[in-house]
Amino acid sequence: MARDMIVVGMADLNSTKAPGVLTTLGLGSCVGIALYDPRAKIAGLAHIMLPDSGAIQNNSNKAKFADTAVIALVMQMEKLGAKKVSMKAKIAGGAQMFAFNATNENLRVGDRNVDATKMALAKIGIPLIASETGASFGRTVELYADDGRFLIKAIGQGIRTL
């Protein structure tokens, strides 16, 4: 069966039914949020850049922030027939890409993105079942709507499946 590959850009989100595949490239400090409803075989992927929409004045792009992207992605998936109660989450990214002083909170964007993503998922009751975050390398991910496979590719790190 042919697969439709849908590219999710930075500060973007999208969803698809099986046999579709969602991918996003270049997750550094950004986080890829993968949601999957195994009953409906519907997948959704968001590429978030920042943790909190409340800290930014121009925050109209809901996909850009962890706190708003999770809600927007769930709503989009529900329009395709997914049920929030069936959804599971996997995340990747949140790297510390530069050798800054890691004790400065403002420079720990990757860690803050991961923490905000986990809080946003917990707030709406979607369990986080797998994650690969942190370190100092970028990642590209693919999410398969037929079975929820979440492939993570990184230069020099190989390919892993969550």
State the main characteristics.
single chain; 162 residues; alpha+beta
Q: How would you explain this protein's 3D organization?
A:
The two termini are 22 Å apart. This protein has 2 helices and 10 strands, in the order βββββαβαββββ. Helices cover 19% and strands 35% of the residues. β8 and β9 form a beta hairpin. The strands form 2 sheets. A 5-stranded mixed sheet has the order 1-3-8-9-10, with no helix packed on it. A 5-stranded mixed sheet has the order 2-5-4-6-7, covered by helices on one side. It is globular, with a radius of gyration of 15 Å. It is α+β, with helices and mostly antiparallel strands. The mean pLDDT is 92. It has helices at 66-80, 109-124, and strands at 5-7, 12-17, 21-27, 31-37, 42-48, 88-93, 128-133, 139-144, 150-154, 158-161. α1 (66-80) crosses α2.
Secondary structure topology:
Blueprint: E1 5-7, E2 12-17, E3 21-27, E4 31-37, E5 42-48, H1 66-80, E6 88-93, H2 109-124, E7 128-133, E8 139-144, E9 150-154, E10 158-161
Parallel strand pairs: 1-3, 6-7
Antiparallel strand pairs: 2-5, 3-8, 4-5, 4-6, 8-9, 9-10
Characterize the overall form: globular
Mean pLDDT: 92
The proportion of strand residues reads 35-45%
Report the total helices: 2
Instruction: Describe the strand arrangement of the main beta sheet, using strand numbers.
Output: 1-3-8-9-10
Helix-strand category:
alpha+beta
Q: How far apart lie the N and C ends?
A: 22 Å
- Rg from C-alpha positions? 15 Å
DSSP strand count: 10
| H and E order | EEEEEHEHEEEE
Percent of residues in helices:
10-25%
Please mark out the parts with pLDDT under 50 across 5 or more consecutive residues, or reply none.
none
Major sheet summary line: 5 strands, mixed
